[in-house]
Each structure stands twice: as C-alpha cells, then as structure tokens.
Amino acid sequence: MKKFLFLSMFVIMLASCGGLDTKSQSGLKGNWTITNVTYPGSDYIKVTSFDVADSKCFVGSSWNFVSNNNKGTMNVNGSGNCPSFSSPIVWTVTKTGDFTLKITEGAKAKRVTEGYFLKMRNQSETSFQLVDNVNVGGKNVEVVYQFSKM
Predict the structure, then answer these.
(1) Residue 2: exposure state from Cβ atoms within 10 A (0-12, 13-18, ≥19)
(2) Strand, helix or coil for residue 64
(3) What is the mean pLDDT of residues 29-54?
(4) What span, in angstroms and rounded, lies between the C-alpha atoms of 117 and 61?
(5) Where are the alpha helices (DSSP H) in the chain?
(6) Which end of the chain, N or C, is less packed with Cβ atoms under 10 Å?
(7) Calpha distance 103→49 (Å, rounded)
(8) What is the torsion angle, in degrees rounded to the nearest 10, for the CA atoms of residue 24, residue 2, residue 137 and residue 44?
C-alpha cells in the first residue's frame, strides 16, 4: 500500500508540475559537498536528516549526481558522534523546483517505497540549496542544505 501511495503521489506531482526540469537536472551533474546546514534554533534543537543522522553530520558529506539517469551516490563521513553512511540515490527535479530523493541503499529504486520531497533553490553553476520542511515541536521549520561544487 505504501508503495502504491508513494508512486501515486510521485505521478500526480509530476503531472501537476508539468514534468521534469531537464535544465536544472543537467546543472546538478557532478560531485558536490554540503558546506552548511541551517535552520532556526539549530544551536538548541537536533534534526535527523533523511533518517540517517543529525543534520550537522551532513556538513562535509559528498554527493554525486548523474543527470542522464537521475542516479548518484551520497556519502556521510563518520566523525565524532556521526556515523559513516554511504548509499546510491535516485533523484529528480520538477519545473516547479520540487526535488525528490530516494535513498536506495543498494536496492532497486522501484522497490524503495519511501523518499523525500524537498525544494531546490538558488541553483548556479557552483552551488544550490535543498530545503526540507520538518516539524519541530509542532512548528514547521525549513532545514537548508547548502551544496557547493567540488
């Protein structure tokens, strides 16, 4: 049921948004690193990102985006209290800036029934932001991941 729900939401989103943004997708091709993660209250509140680790653990993580097949990889460097984590990913960008992400952990993407919906902002040749809306204490907070080209 979850698979059907996720796939249905994905198809509806693509149809309502007018499809994929191939220009934005091709602009992500290559190797990137997260240089900063910000959100209101980040000094006092911890947010777990992508069900992997504390959001601050993603600073310094490396990401590879392959635009011709919408696949890639993400690698979180374990240091301090942060775990090491590496996984293949599948991703898309719509014309309205919606960014979908599936962390497949080696499984076929069609078998992964859950994913993440973020917003892509401020894309340039050397940087972009992904914004995730999370609920912290009953309040909607934007978590901003700042990416820089490696």
Answers:
(1) exposed
(2) strand
(3) 91
(4) 19
(5) 2-17, 22-27
(6) N
(7) 12
(8) -60
Task: Tell me phi and psi for residue 109, to 5 degrees.
Answer: -55, -35
Report the amino acid identity of residue 75: N
Amino acid at 66: V
Residue 128 predicted with pLDDT over 70:
yes
pLDDT tens digits, residue range 71-111?
A: 999 999 988 889 999 999 999 999 999 999 999 987 777 77
pLDDT score of 5: 45
Whole-prediction pTM: 0.83
Domains and CATH numbers, the chain: 2-149 (2.40.128.280)
Q: Which tokens sit at 13?
A: 């989103």
